Amino acid sequence: SLCAVAPAAAQKYPTRNITMIVPFAAGGPTDVISRIVTGHMAPTLGQSIIIENVVGAGGTTGATRAARAANDGYTLITGHMGTHAASAPLYPKLAYHPEKDFEPVALLAGTPILILARKDFPPKDLKEFVAYVKANAEKVNAAHAGIGSVSHVSCELLNSILGIKPVGVPFNGTGPAMNALVAGQVDYMCDQIVNAVPQINAGTIKAYAVATPERNPSLPNVPTTTEAGLPEFQAQAWNAIFAPKGTSPAIIATLNAAAVKALDDENVKKRLLELGSVIPAPANRTPEALAALVKSEIAKWTPVLKPAT
Ligand code: MLT
User: Fold this and answer.
1) Which residue of 21, 60, 83, 149 sits with most ligand 1 atoms within 8 Å of its CB, as the best mutation to test the pocket?
2) Does the pTM exceed 0.90?
3) What is the DSSP string of 134-193?
4) Which atom of ligand 1 lies nearest, measured to the CA of 150?
5) How many whole angstroms from 83 Cα to the centroid of ligand 1?
6) pLDDT (average), residues 198-220
7) Nearest atom (ligand 1) to Cα of 173
8) 239-265 pLDDT, tens digit each
9) ipTM over 0.95
């Protein structure tokens, strides 16, 4: 009968591949976190999750694409503190609203911010860095992943604390920005820890401090900004899955359960922790908790950031 068919059909989601938009370049923090978690979600859901890197405009190109996609559960986005909070005040004509145009699915990882520099950048610690960038304000430059990206807004915060305006060097993600830092083509960067740990361990870049109250277990030798003399600079980003507005509650619940299951997997946890991520506590893994986070992050960043000119 029809009555028997409808619930069975509803329970069948997903019946085909899911596209996961990553709004930054492959190999960067959002891409890495998304691949680790969706790699576990796919077998749970019984379908492939295809990562599509839709880059540009600090992640807002990919987020616009996701906001406009069909709300059928087959196009999702791994967004972050930039695309789904800080970009709103920076782009007055943004084609989407982080709250009104998306259904929150699940928070995947907290990502502490580090102050990094090319290996041969002269300052040897954070105190010297502060003095050096102030003294050389006209000639230092800072890499970032576009206006509104995490690396951009967290360095805006740092630069405003220091009272400097370095030349910004934009990339399509901090994956390529990190390559430029390793190659010595740019001076410094404020980046999420998952992108920095492999390079710090390989000795290819300098890390001055992590901008969180505690040291990160993945980088026990990197001081906090408080220890290193700049307690005002505190910054931690986050990455999370969102679906287009109007995606059904049943689909959101299915996706959230798969993400939560991934975060409970020992191998997923190990890989995220090795890269310095903060795994969300169970209470912070619900769609409602992510909605509250987005709201509070928009409220936090709006007064700090001014529209780009
Ligand atoms: C990336 O994946 O490249 C980053 O999340 C970019 C950023 O926001 O800094």
Assistant:
1) 149
2) yes
3) HHTTTT-EEEESSTTSHHHHHHHHHHHHHT--PEEEE-SSHHHHHHHHHTTSS-EEEEEH
4) 8
5) 10
6) 98
7) 3
8) 999 999 999 999 999 999 999 999 999
9) yes
